[in-house]
Design brief:
With 394 residues, the protein is an alpha+beta fold. The chain contains twelve helices and nine strands. It has helices spanning 7-23, 25-31, 39-47, 66-79, 93-98, 101-113, 227-263, 275-303, 309-333, 345-354, 362-374, 376-382; strands at residues 118-121, 137-141, 144-155, 162-168, 178-184, 190-194, 205-216, 265-266, 269-270. A hairpin with a 2-residue loop joins strand 8 (265-266) and strand 9 (269-270). The longest helix is centred in the middle third of the chain and has 37 residues, at 227-263. The two termini are 38 Å apart. The model has no long low-confidence stretch (mean pLDDT 96). Bound molecules: flavin-adenine dinucleotide.
Length: 394
């Protein structure tokens, strides 16, 4: 199994590195007190069609492979996890993949130009991992839907022109009634609010209340009840990108730690000679490599038309977890210097920590892996869905 980039992918990666160098974005982000991601850089990426990377050519994008996107997100992670909205359509890919012709015509051009950002609204005050508990409703009234509910703990509340809001069209039916809607955020019946997060400050964070928000039927994404299928397909891809962007962040941290261990002297020699330092570096370099390969495998399966929920869940939990511990130890190796902003390690740690929760917590992903390995019956039993209490052939 080879996960090498083809020539086209190599050229693209070169272009991405060039873009980072030319815009000097790493330095700008490191020196920014707010850590906010500069919008104009995204527009510059739009001009080069780099937002359309993972959108089909027929829809105005570049149609690059999932594997190539993995390499690009890894490169992004080296700069900052906050660059995750720079290249590729992000959650706007939901429209590119599942949107009607009219929806694509309306929303893809501004998205690809870098003028529109798309948020995703799944989480609510009483619903996170358990999407069956979604309380936001969408009531069909003639040729409209009326949306009512609260979405909370969501990213890009301020910057997103539209949100893909997942709502219940058949309250009481769990995930079977889940339906996504394209909601334009300038609606006067939407009340936004902000929450201060620990990390991932490049983009705003918070929520919004939907007070009888009327949206036309044409803004429904897919058919009623298709939300869970759409969610699963999209996140099987997106989760891996989040895993690998964290690995990029960790790779950079370990490279910094190596340089530091070679040049910082204590007790008459470089600190890298201490086994406690050397082995930390060896452990993390090995684990990062292993986790990266798992991410590449999950992305390669997507390219081969065999997306696998289990492989993607493994890739995200291993990617984020390995990255977190690597950055934590890189910080330790830097001593006092690791604990200040200047070296960028504390920010990487805060950012990666967020991705151990967002887009599927580490533990829910382990439960998903367990479901695929042990079977749905045992998984359902774990969730309290009844099962006959008897052993089978043991
Ligand atoms: C930085 C950040 C950005 C985010 N951005 C967005 C966004 O843009 N859009 C959006 O909709 N949401 C977003 N979220 C929300 C995120 O997706 C949810 O926080 C996450 O799905 C978990 O939901 P919860 O917080 O309600 O925790 P809960 O679901 O209440 O879980 C609490 C704890 O119980 C554990 N748990 C729950 N169920 C299981 C299970 N089946 N097996 C094992 N353990 C379980 C969890 O692992 C966790 O430790 C973001 C969160 C963060 C931190």
């Amino acid at each position: 199994m080879s996960f090498e980039l083809n020539q086209e992918g190599e050229e693209l990666l070169h272009k991405i590195r060039d873009f980072f160098e030319r815009t000097n974005i790493e330095k700008e982000l490191l020196e920014s007190n707010s850590e906010k991601f500069p919008w104009h850089i995204r527009q510059e990426a739009g001009k080069l069609n780099l937002i359309g990377l993972d959108v089909n050519k027929a829809d105005g994008g570049m149609g690059v492979s999932a594997l190539t996107m993995g390499y690009i997100y890894h490169e992004c992670g080296k700069i900052s996890v906050n660059t995750r909205e720079l290249f590729g359509a992000g959650h706007g890919r939901l429209i590119a993949q599942y949107g009607s012709l009219e929806q694509k015509k309306k929303y893809l051009p501004p998205l690809l130009k870098g003028d529109l950002l798309v948020g995703v609204g799944l989480t609510e005050p009483d619903c996170g991992s358990d999407l069956a508990a979604t309380e936001t409703t969408a009531e069909r009234v003639g040729s409209n839907y009326i949306l009512r509910g609260i979405k909370q703990w969501v990213s890009r509340v301020e910057e997103s022109g539209i949100f893909i809001v997942f709502a219940q069209t058949k309250p009481g039916s769990g995930v079977k009634g889940l339906t996504p809607f394209i909601v334009e955020m300038d609606n006067p019946n939407i009340e936004k609010f902000l929450i201060e997060p620990m990390g991932m400050k490049g983009w705003s964070y918070g929520g919004f209340k939907l007070h009888d928000v009327v949206i036309p039927v044409e803004n429904r994404l897919g058919e009623e009840g298709e939300g869970f299928k759409i969610f699963n397909e999209h996140f099987t891809y997106w989760r891996v990108l989040m895993g690998i962007i964290c690995l990029g962040a960790a790779q950079k941290a370990i490279e910094q730690a190596i340089e530091y261990a070679q040049n910082r002297f204590a007790f008459g020699g470089p600190i890298g000679r201490f086994q406690s330092v050397m082995h930390k570096i060896s452990d993390h370099a090995t684990l990062i490599e292993a986790a990266r390969l798992l991410c590449f495998k999950a992305l390669d399966l997507i390219d081969k038309g065999k997306p696998d929920v289990k492989e993607s869940a493994m890739a995200k939990w291993l990617g984020t977890t390995v990255a977190y511990h690597a950055i934590d130890d890189a910080m330790q190796i830097h001593g006092a210097r690791g604990y200040v902003r200047e070296y960028g390690l504390e920010q990487r740690l805060r950012d990666v920590r967020g991705l151990m929760i967002a887009d599927g917590t580490t533990d829910t992903l382990k439960s998903l892996i367990g479901r695929e390995l042990l079977g749905k019956e045992i998984y359902n039993h774990m969730l309290g869905r009844v099962r006959e209490p008897k052993s089978v052939n043991v």
